[in-house]
Amino acid sequence: MALIPTTILTGFLGAGKTTLLNRILQEPHGFKIAVIENEFGQENIDNEILVQDGTEQIVEMNNGCICCTVRGDLIVALTALAQRRRDGELQFDHVVIETTGLANPGPVAQTFFIDEEVAIDYLVDAIITVVDAKHAMHQLDTYEEAQRQIGFADKLLLSKTDLVSADELAILIERIKRINPRAPVSTADFGRVAIADVLDLRGFNLNDKLELDPDFIAAQEHEHAQHDHACETHCTQDHEHTHDHHHSHHSDNIAAFVFKSERPFNTEKLDEFLGSIVQVFGPRMLRYKGVLWMDGADRKVVFQGVHQIMGSDIGGKWGENESRSSKMVFIGQNLPKETFILGLEQCLV
Ligand SMILES: Nc1nc2c(ncn2[C@@H]2O[C@H](COP(=O)(O)OP(=O)(O)OP(=O)(O)O)[C@@H](O)[C@H]2O)c(=O)[nH]1
Q1: Does any ligand 1 atom lie closer than 6 A to the CB of residue 41?
Q2: Where are the transmembrane segments (predicted)?
Q3: In this structure, which residue's CA is closest to atom 1 in ligand 1?
Q4: Which ligand 1 atom minimizes the distance to the CA of 13?
Q5: pTM value?
Q6: Are residues 24 and 169 in the same domain?
Q7: Does 246 fall in a domain?
């Protein structure tokens, strides 16, 4: 059987990966795509955001980041998908892996070369990196992960160009071309891209990656020391509120916490609270998102943001037998979790 082309979709927190993936899944391109979703923070909100018509196979991996802690799970997910395809249980001709916003795409791509079982069935089609035109300058100044994601890309897609001036965009493009002169750059306005720009690119060139990192295919046991400086930092995940525990090793001080409630929110109180908290802590709020139960609403509300840019959408209807609740994930640097949790509790009906 021919190898299954796999796209590794990366980009910093909130860059627009899920938006792009949703577009890809909705386009009538004829590809049958299996998706592997990995999120930073133990709650998978993207699952609610991704449009699913039942034809895609979506595998969630939320208990760590696939570039480090759950790489074994990635191998299991890939080999299980291939087996089910061989058995005729699933039909797909392409896999898209959406990594966490903090993932180093290097070790993810490496899996396809060093794990024999994976290598039998799959090949890396391309590493596609979504770059948030509004926030990338700051992300590149501050986070190694953002630089690596651009450095490893075979194709770069600029999102949120609607939020910046032509001059700002030109400066950013110049900078990302300096980091990665090989990868073509194009724009993806709310994920709008031609399918030929994202699937079947055959853009992954091992020689390029070896030039970027001569130890690219080095033995796994050396990989953390050699590739993943961010993985040397201590665990920063914070899980107290959900009693869930897992470790993730990424940039110092970046932590995720979850708020959950089985009481509805009062819309005005919540709007006011979120508006004010974003004013104060926005610069440190790297990513936040949630699926909310609003008092009196018969549909879910999906809310999300990156720094000060926050928005909400009407989501799906609550199922008849679904118990209503809200869950929110906040990912940021040194965020005062207690202030957030207490404030949110005060917005409940
Ligand atoms: N203005 C603007 N907003 C965009 C664009 N693309 C995505 N967004 C918004 O950016 C926010 C984050 O988008 P997602 O697609 O969820 O980002 P992500 O990279 O999947 O985020 P994480 O996986 O949570 O890190 C959402 O509110 C999107 O609607 C764009 O081109 N312009």
Answers
A1: no
A2: none
A3: 160
A4: 25
A5: 0.82
A6: yes
A7: no
Is residue 319 located within the same domain as residue 183?
Answer: no
Could you give the CA distance from residue 45 to residue 308 in angstroms, rounded to a whole number? 20
Which DSSP category does 285 fall into?
Answer: E
| CB-based contacts of 205-210 (< 8 A; 24+ apart in sequence) | 205/154, 206/113, 208/154, 208/182, 209/106, 209/109, 209/152
* ipTM for this prediction: 0.99
Find out whether the beta carbon of 110 lies less than 6 Å from any atom of ligand 1: no
The predicted-structure confidence for 4-47, as pLDDT tens digits, reads as follows: 999 999 999 999 999 999 888 888 888 888 888 887 765 666 66
Residues belonging to the chain: 349
> Tens digits of per-residue pLDDT, 288-317?
999 999 999 889 999 999 999 999 989 888
Q: Is the CB of 264 under 6 A from ligand 1?
A: no
Question: Any idea what the Cα angle at residue 39 is, between residues 101 and 137, rounded to 5°?
Answer: 10
Å from CA of 119 to ligand 1 middle: 32
Residue 159 Cβ < 6 Å to ligand 1: yes
The range of the structural domain enclosing residue 272 comes to 253-345
Nearest-CA residue for ligand 1 atom 2 is: 160
Nearest CA to ligand 1 atom 25: 13
Average pLDDT, the chain: 83
Ligand 1 centroid to residue 5 C-alpha, Å = 25
The CB density around residue 219, as the number of other CB atoms within 10 Å, is: 9
Beta-sheet strands, E only, within the chain? 4-11, 33-38, 57-61, 94-98, 122-132, 155-159, 185-187, 254-261, 285-292, 299-306, 309-317, 326-333
CA of 159 to the centre of ligand 1 (A): 8
d(CA 348, CA 344): 7
Q: Which amino acid is at 163?
A: L
- Enumerate residues 6+ apart whose C-beta is below 8 A from 30: none
In a domain, 11, yes or no: yes
Residues 175 and 213 grouped into a single domain: yes
Is residue 18 in contact with ligand 1, taking CB distance under 6 Å? Answer: yes
Q: Is the CB of 307 under 6 A from ligand 1?
A: no
Instruction: Give me the amino acid identity at 106.
Output: G
